[in-house]
What we know:
This protein is globular. By secondary structure, the chain is α/β, with parallel strands linked by helices. Helices cover 36% and strands 22% of the residues. It is built from 9 helices and 10 strands. Strand 9 and strand 10 (215-221) form a beta hairpin. The strands form 2 sheets. A 6-stranded mixed beta sheet has the order 6-7-8-3-9-10, with helices on both faces. The protein has helices at residues 44-51, 74-80, 97-106, 112-125, 141-153, 171-188, 229-234, 241-250, 263-276, and strands at 2-11, 21-29, 33-38, 59-64, 67-68, 81-84, 159-163, 191-196, 207-212, 215-221. The protein has a domain at 240-277. Residues 13, 20, 38, 40-46 line the site of adenosine-5'-diphosphate (ADP). Magnesium ion is lined by residues 44-45, 164.
Amino acid sequence: MVAIEFRDVYFRYNEDTPWVLKNFNLKIESKETVAILGHNGSGKSTIAKLANGLLMPQAGEIFIDDRKITPTNVWEIRQKIGMVFQNPENQFVGTTVRDDVAFGLENRAIAREEMLRRIQESLQQVGMEAYENHEPHHLSGGQKQRVAIASVMAIHPQVLLLDEATAMLDPRGKKEILATVLSLKEQLAITTVMITHDLQEISIADRVIVMNKGAIFKDTTTDKLFNSHQELQSIGLTIPLSVQLAIELEQYGYPFSTYPLKQEELIETLWKSHLKM
Ligand SMILES: Nc1ncnc2c1ncn2[C@@H]1O[C@H](COP(=O)(O)OP(=O)(O)O)[C@@H](O)[C@H]1O
Ligand SMILES: [Mg+2]
């Protein structure tokens, strides 16, 4: 099953501005976890907005779960693809966490009992069940984004798409979101697309797509991504410090089978190779 497909898509915001996407093709299979990376302005959010019908392409076709997006089925498509955006503050409508998760369900005329069941279930999935009666503005950034994820999960989407959902969070909040996404992936095997410019976040993805100037620059696996670190730097991506160190150390004979995304992994690899020396 194909979860998301862009077929020969052309998109621009205005007739007198350049194409943001030009003959763009992308296929994401069901149950994949994909990270989409790229510098600012490379077209990532445009892809997200096209995928849930917030924008319509000037040419080409977009399919979600094998259904082509048309102006008349956008509502149905949005049920299939749940989106979480950057700013946690902009995603709240309810006065309590429960109301907030309920909002999207009320819009879909779901029976009250089923609604209450789904609210509990989705808050449990993100580890926020103890906060049902809390006011959203008292939560930490990471907790707010977890509630935003719960609101989306309550709709039972086939795809979860996070557009820079960790960009405004502190390191702890970022960790919370990564752990949540990883646990959803393990519990539910949901198709997940994480748009980010933080290369550390790719650790939980199976596949990494690097965007540059509205086109796919690389489509690879997480393990292999840093083999082309020079190219990545040349298109404005920052290589994580632990990977930079590993690249330097390789010149001194320290072998790395995969580049470490975390400091702890770097230390562990060095320690093991030290024991062998
Ligand atoms: N609402 C808009 N109107 C006009 N141009 C836009 C709009 N949103 C984005 N763009 C332009 O489209 C290009 C891609 O933007 P975007 O998809 O937001 O990139 P990213 O999410 O990778 O930072 C950029 O050149 C940006 O300036
Ligand atoms: Mg963006």
